[in-house]
Design brief:
Helix content is 42%, strand content 18%. It is α/β, with parallel strands linked by helices. A hairpin with a 2-residue loop joins strand 1 and strand 2. Bound molecules: D-malate (MLT).
Length: 261
Amino acid sequence: MVSVGQYRVLVQVRGSIAFEESGSGLLTVFVHGYPLDHRLWLDQLEALSDIRHCVAPDLPGFGSSRPLEAFTMETVADSIAAFVGNEQADIIALSMGGYVALALWERHPEVVRSLALLDTKASADTPEARAGRSAQAAQVAEQGTGSLVAGMIRALLAPGAGRDPKRRLTEMIEATTPDAVIAALDAMANRPNRTKVLSTIDVPATVLVGALDALTPPTVAVEMAARIPDATVSVIPGAGHLTPIEAPDHVSALLRHFLAR
Ligand code: MLT
């Protein structure tokens, strides 16, 4: 992959994947969650461009990337591996991005130099969570993605979240198509439990979580980190599930420290 100096380059497309990049040096790939796009990572692209070649793709079907015929954690992991190509990358992944990152580690460990898992978990959905996803898919099919905004603000952001994370979350949700939402809900509902994969991670790893993350709380993060042989864990005060936009400076500082190890 070509590095681009210190400056952020606006959306480009390689194959079916759209991405933004910044900086130069070792490749670092940022994997967003649901129902978001690469803009989740804009602060980190800027903050880490002096130490890394930072690349934030839109996952297939999200943002400006073309959809896959079948969207599963495995097919998305394969498309990230193809995107990285013959290089190795530090993988920084949030929530659904973390589900993809664990599938990537399982299927293509050779492309992973290190792993930062934010606000995510390794376990599969419970039956209740699956039922919730079916209901959400039906709602989106009927009323569009805009109908998710109010509930997502409540579920994903800390109660005291400011205007900026709310605006950014709203913009990302409204830009996501119903097809992408429905495909991702189905893929997350059917993802396997990858708890056993954690003990096989033999690259440096870190787990970050918002102290007020209601979806994947700190207890889950601490348990996950304890299963990874060489992992640190950090809890970010005041933030909910979307730490990169709720506590951007804190997340960037933790990632900088991790990447510089
Ligand atoms: C995400 O933030 O990617 C999703 O909320 C994860 C999930 O619903 O399991």
